[in-house]
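Dear support,

I submitted the protein below through the web form. The confirmation email said the job was done, but the results page showed an empty box. After a refresh the structure appeared. I'm attaching both so you can tell me whether what I see now is the final result or a partial one.
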Amino acid sequence: MVDITVELCKELELLRDSISSDVVAVAWIDQGDSYFRWRYVTGCRSERYRRISFKSGYGVAGTAIRLGRTVTANPLVPGASRLRQECALMLAEQLHSAVAIPLHDDSTPLPQGVLLIGNRSARIFLPQELAVTEEVARQIECMRHSEQAR
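What the results page shows now:
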């Protein structure tokens, strides 16, 4: 049996390398208090992400969760500076561009997590990169589902 943590971290590293991203992170909801917390992260310069929590609707990650769809924050997107300012991970890691993809669970129609990719420089993520990222998001959902089924 493969540990989901090891398998997930490998997937995140591969994603970060394949799309030349600086940070890739996954947050899951804490059932006790309805806050999301970053659980799996690669590329961070500090450990501050461990203390960051957020609610649905705030920042790029929270907006993706609230809307249930992919949200992009880059210099060409109107309101991107607000999304960046509301996302503690983007501020802590000095990210200027990010994409957040909600992670769904079979038990509820609402997203239970989010996958975030970010860059410390301003950039626009290409459609091919977004497709790869969304595929990894689906794989993460499958890993989570198989872990919960055990």
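Response: this is the final, complete result; the empty box was a page-load delay. The longest helix spans residues 127-149.
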